Amino acid sequence: VVTGIALPAGSDKLYSGSIDGTVRVWDCNTGRCVNSINLGSEVTSLISEGPWIFAGLKNSVRAWNIQTGADVTLDGPKGQVLSLNFGNDILLAGAEDGVIYAWRGNSDPKAESPFELVATLSGHTKPVVCLAIGCYKMLYSGSMDHSIKVWDLDTLECTMTLNGHSDTVTSLICWEDYLLSSSSDCTVNVWVCTEEGTLKVAYTRTEENGVLGLYGMTDADTKPILFCSCKDNSVRMYELPT
Q1: C-alpha distances out from residue 164 to 67, 113, 175, 215, 232, Å
Q2: In which band, very low, low, confident or very high, does the pLDDT at 111 lie, cut at 50, 70 and 90?
Q3: Order of all β-strands in the sheet with 128-134
Q4: What does the pLDDT read at residue 210?
Q5: 162 has pLDDT over 80
Q6: What are the ranges of the WD repeats (predicted)?
């Protein structure tokens, strides 16, 4: 299974991670694999930020700098790192123990690591499956405990818990002022902010099968399209906001 792909800005190389324990580097011009890095552990998430590639492993996050060649292991997580995101200059890792680990970049040239563990965000009771960064410096986390938690990226404190699903929250995306969440309970929820400052479900789309992931983009006419992958081996495309 391929668990993540990353295309760093300005690079002609595509990076992919897999539970076969490797990160592969592909030449975007030829489509050929030009390098394979054997990590000896399942790669369960992969992202890029600037010149850095981050891979979620068991009990750690591995980081490479494609400009300097730096290779760093970030310890701290307990169990498999299932989700990664980067926001407010903080690297965030959702782990199997239900905790989100937060590292901030360390500019001290004498420091042992370019990243410093600055916080552990506890609140979920089961593994954290997905992370999304929204406006107003908000982090959203989805878990196998069926909940979505909202965190303030300035204070790194939980401000809200959303209970709108009856199974694992599999994917989260922020689109303008909306939060979209998918779940193994076969639904996609659209959340909107109320006058009281809380989030409520404004619309629910029900699928025949569990929903694995969401992705949003605009088509050639700049119309917003939601891609929804389901357990029946299909990817469904929806025109928003209809």
Answers
A1: 43, 40, 18, 20, 23
A2: confident
A3: 128-134, 138-143, 148-152, 157-162
A4: 96
A5: yes
A6: 1-36, 121-161, 162-191
Cα separation of the two ends of the chain: 33
Query: What distance in Å separates the CA atoms of residue 113 and residue 62, rounded to the nearest whole number?
Result: 12
pTM for the model: 0.94
List phi, psi (to 5°) of 221.
-100, 15
- φ/ψ of 51, rounded to 5, equals -85, 0
pLDDT tens-digit map of 130-142: 999 998 899 999 9
**212 vs 171: CA distance, rounded Å:** 7
Residue 48 exposure: Cα atoms within 13 Å on the Cβ side: 20
For 174-202, the DSSP string reads EETTEEEEEETTSEEEEEEE-TTS-EEEE
Contact 18, 38 (CB under 8 A): no
List phi, psi (to 5°) of 118. Answer: -110, -20
Alpha-carbon span 133 to 235, nearest angstrom: 23
Helix (H, G, I), strand (E, B) or coil at 30: coil
Q: Hey, what are 70's tokens?
A: 């730096």
> Token pair for residue 91?
């690297």
Q: Which residue has the tokens 């639904």?
A: 187
